[in-house]
Amino acid sequence: MFDSGWAEAAPVAPAALSWSQWLPGPELAAALEGSEPVDLVDDQGFDAAERLAGWEALVAWASARLYRETAEYLQARQGRVRGEGRGELAAQEVAMEVAALARVAPRTGEVRIHQAALLLERLPGTLAALEAGRISLSHARVVIEQTEQCSAETARALDAALWSRPPRDRTPTQLRETVRRLLARIDPDAVRRRPEQARRGRELRYWSDDDGATGVIQMRMPADQARGVFAVVDALARAAGDPPEGEVRTLGQKRLDVARDAILDGATARVAGDCGDGCCCGAQDSETNSTNPAGDAAEDPAEESSADQAGTPAPGRDPQRGLREGAASPVRTEVRVTIGWDVLAGLSQRPAELEGHGPIPAVLARRLAADPDATWRRLLTDPVTGTATHLDTHRYRPPAALQELVRSRDLTCTAPGCRMPAARCDLDHVVPYDHGHPDGRGGAGRTREGNLRPCCRRHHRIKTLGDWTAALAPDPDGGQTPVVLWTSPSGHRWWVRSPELEPPRGERDPHLDPETDPDTADAHLADLRSAAA
What gap in Å lies between CA 390 and CA 387, rounded to an integer? Predict the structure, then answer.
């Protein structure tokens, strides 16, 4: 019986034991695999539905075994370095290996070993329920989420109380409410500590959506602050209009546009302000730690409400955006886009590469390149492999040319599965640099493009101080450019190659006309460059 009041239908009695009544394990898996579903004519689908319940129980059982053995492997690895002060490093090494073996992101590996350790050490009842197929992994994660900020004693007490009676069929959301009530009864102080825990856990994250065309930004913060941020954005969005001839935006689209423009184009303006002295636009130099403009706007909600009722934007405010006209952000950032010359000239529709995101449509890349503030740099690629080999760095404040080449060539951290943008990574000598032999004698690693790879701080530390190793090795697919061969403490190996910024020879874009006159392409480029000037 579900908490929501759903009632179980009375099935037609099957001839054999129902699959949902089996204890999940190898025997159930073998029996399901060796049998065929009963025809729907015979039992109206009861057996077919029972088989689904059996497979669900097997998924839960396998998940429990995976988490149990993950936690035991972590304990064994940390036990080997006990007393050496390397427990945290050992956990990072295991997380990296778990992620590589499962072909998931490094962050997912870290979350998995954290959850596995909590289940094994603090929540044995929850782990047993998962192993018995009585709950799903989603249910187990709910218990973890609600208890991970508690003491070990509180978590064990809650776990014992939660499974002291036969579990009722609950959705994960219903279970979350049950756990919250239990926690409030067992440890009333835990509820009072939640706001401070939320403050310490605040973060902003970015990732690329599954379709590759959408970027997602997530903000986590204390609930009162989140409601305040939303209220300011909502008020500005409701005051914003639409162009007379153009897109008619939904309120949700207006909220997003307002939040985006507030960050990219500068501070929001008070409705009643005229951008004179004392204006809250916050247009100060970025190095002076200027006041958050959204916070200024939140101080006077009544003023925003009056503007909403009036429905007329204040003077100096863009009626479509709800922001001060002409506002420009004082913060300057670099967004790297790698685009082929043929794409730039309009001769091909191959995607470009946006650092930290992935492929973007050619039309968007050309629009970014045509921006008057865009800086162009020539990046030469190997005509066979498509990887970067040279970079011109004619810039006002040029970074080291070698650093630019390596980061532009590899785009991300070169540890297995890591997507940390190269601009935020260290530059690591794959073959360690020997300060006594800077010329590379004696097998020392030289400071040159072939031996340098971007490596995020976590994976750089694991390679330098831990038991993971990295080395240059021939491409296993026969490529001419060496790959980085990573070896885990258990002996498993993964190789990482530099991405192909241009398609290899023989795989050119079909949209590119091979007979195009180079002078015509140069003319296209000159026209685009003139438009951007």
Answer: 10
Neighbouring-strand partners of residue 358: 354
First to last CA, the chain: 70
Q: How many helices and strands (H and E) does the chain possess?
A: 19, 12
Instruction: Answer for the pair 138, 159: CB distance below 8 angstroms, yes or no.
Output: no
Cα angle for residues 520, 521, 524 (degrees, 5° grid): 90
**Spatial separation of the C-alpha atoms in residues 112 and 29, rounded to whole Å:** 25
Asked if 280 contacts 269 with a C-beta cutoff of 8 angstroms, the reply is: yes
Q: Using the predicted structure, report yes or no on whether residue 70 has a pLDDT greater than 90.
A: yes
How far is it, in rounded angstroms, from Cα 264 to Cα 373?
14
Q: Kindly report, residue by residue over 8-60, the tens digit of the pLDDT.
A: 444 443 445 688 889 999 999 999 999 887 766 666 778 888 899 999 999 99
Query: What is the rounded CA–CA span in Å between residue 277 and residue 268?
Result: 15
Residue 338 near residue 377 (C-beta atoms within 8 A): no
295-304, 384-393, 433-442, 469-478: the lowest-pLDDT one: 295-304
Does pTM surpass 0.85?
Answer: no
In the chain, domain spans: 19-201, 215-310, 337-496
CA distances from 530 to 362, 364, 370, 450, 533 (A): 19, 18, 9, 36, 5
Give the CA angle between residues 453, 454, 455 to the nearest 5°: 110
pLDDT at 294: 34
Are 39 and 451 a contacting pair, CB within 8 Å? no
- In the numeric block, which tokens belong to residue 514? 């091979």
CA 20 to CA 503: how far, in whole Å? 52
